[in-house]
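User: Fold both of these, please.

Assistant: Here is the first one.
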Amino acid sequence: MRIHNLLFVGVVLALATVPCLATNITFAGFSTAGGVLDLTMVYGASSNTLETGTWSGSTFTPGAVPVQFYYQDVTAPAGLTGNLAALLTIDASTTSAVALAGHSYDQEVFLGTFTITLDSAYDGHAAGTYVLLAGSFGSVNSDLSGTKGSLTFSDSTPPTGDVDFSSDSTFLPFAAGGFQAMFLDLSANTNTTLPANTTSLNLTGTAPNQYFSGFKSSAGGSFVGELTPEPFSFLLLGSGLVGLGLLRRKLR
């Protein structure tokens, strides 16, 4: 191969690899399994708790619910690609009241955790024990807002630690102190005491100290993180830099 072709390849590799050095990507997500109402808002004394669980008649039992989980825009190993049958557990509480403007709701400062486990045996782990993704969140940026039928829960860094992901999947190289964010879309909200065609959710208390009386919802979610490049990316960058160096010498 001629030297100018080698130089061209080096330049292309350098330009292609630079974006890999610090990239915030949506690397995972989940969707509801079979339309299950998997999230429930529970009212407590001057508090609300958003959690997963199952209903039997009018009885709610907190716990894991089935979801379809997936990794995206990352190189997942065999056995962890495509839509994965998984179990989701969320437990998040707040003592902040609901701010109401018309039929728009806003509630802040949720503190909690979530865990998504693979609902099958994998890599020496029994079904339901391999952690696809887990995390803690809250204190500053956590927020639940929107209208009945379209509520969104979100949280993100900074500050460092306001969202903190972990996983048994070692191919996810989270950058230390890097950006992390999570989003939950609550749809098909069904208030436990109102007809399905109403536009409002029940609140308990008197403004400005109102809380959700309770509702249940299906949910989907997405997760964003700053991932460090794989070793191969550094190899590409090194090759590209060599090519740039040779090109500079040739142009002198």
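And the second sequence with its predicted structure:
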Amino acid sequence: MRDVELYRALLGVTAPWTVAGVDVDLTGQRVVVRVEAGAGPYPCPECGTSSRRYDGKRRRWRHLDTMQFTTWIEADVPRVECASHGVKQLRVPWAEPGSQFTALFERLAIDLLQECRRSTSTVEGSISTHTKPGRAQIIFQHPAKCSLS
């Protein structure tokens, strides 16, 4: 199994999304999985009506590590022009709208917080070593997903 097929299976991406490539940086211990949405047309995220591509925005999400390698998912996420709802960005299946982390990465962070029962700053520090400053704060500010008791 090749790297593209491996990550396609691991991420579970389905049409219109596909893994277009995987870049491995051995020196930097980084993996970048490039995902594409295909040619379209795409469904409006509000009503599902088939719509044409309006434009796209390059996005990047922190994913779970691949072995000891920091892993990122990158995609040019299309925006569609719907007759009823105007211009809307497609939703990606691996992350919540507006998040900079994949759902699996967020789940790991939440589980870590609940299991370790350490202070948020200690756990945040360990997560922050592999992300840009301030990004870990986004995870800890999701009250609906981070109901810690």
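The longest helix spans residues 103-116.
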